[in-house]
Amino acid sequence: MSANTMVCGIVLHPAGHTRSPAMHNAAFRACGIDATYHAFDVPPDRLGDAITGMRGLGLRQLAVSIPHKTTVMAHLDRVDERAAAIGAVNTVTLRENKLEGANTDWIGALRALEREIDPKGRHAVVLGAGGAARAVVYGLGQAGALVSILNRTESRARELANELGAKESGPLEALADLSPDIIVNTTSVGLGSDVSPAAPEWLPAHAVVMDAVYQPENTRLLRDATQRGARALPGKWMLVHQAAEQFRLWTDTDPPLDVMAQAFDAAGRDSPS
Ligand code: NAP
Fold this sequence. Notes:
By secondary structure, the chain is α/β, with parallel strands linked by helices. It has 9 helices and 12 strands.
């Protein structure tokens, strides 16, 4: 490192097991970019100081993760149109002394799905109505998919559908009567456990099934999908693609996707929790 090394990082709390530094540092090395990426453990009561501190330190880039993606907006000079529509910022850039917020989660979800299917004109079901759902529903809408939102708490699904212009909403069980081309789980069901938000018989063989949950990588939902003959997409790809879009935004360089995916895997082996 030298005085010219670009310092960036991620603010989150707790910072225990993020794989973002591994992905970004591997990408910087692979592209010969003089930069380093740190995880900053910032509790909610220090978020304002951390973000405005970017200006003082001349820190040009920060990623933002849980629990700060919404509250960070109050500390920025500008939030771009897409991040404002989603209601969350995961990327802050200091440009001409202005702090600008953007969101790459939606495009990460879309690029991940596009590995298997073009969502245009397809029927997509999003399970869940929380933060991840907002980005996924927005991305699918941008790609021209018809979206149904199903959630344990139906009223949240309805509110999100109204806000982001989805086709319909309902309870999780409604998936039994739909036969969508795309299913994306954005609930936290399956995170660190072997349970699924959907019964296996609700998963049509022609569908692409993506799980936003990435720990474990091969969730119960994805295993059920594969067994039914559907195509399964691990949540890892959503995370790797959103990091890749941050890398593009910050460096104006095509991201080395394979390098980032390998670094993600290696970081998981080092710290599997
Ligand atoms: P969140 O805002 O807290 O939303 C949680 C969602 O899960 C809500 O829809 C909630 O339904 C539902 N849920 C929770 N427990 C449930 C249960 N027992 N049965 C049915 N539904 C349940 O969380 P989030 O930020 O959206 O994150 C959700 C998941 O996505 C997490 O596992 C997170 O790690 C993952 N994620 C992945 C990526 C990626 O890049 N791969 C990015 C972001 C998030 P109610 O409304 O009924 O409470």
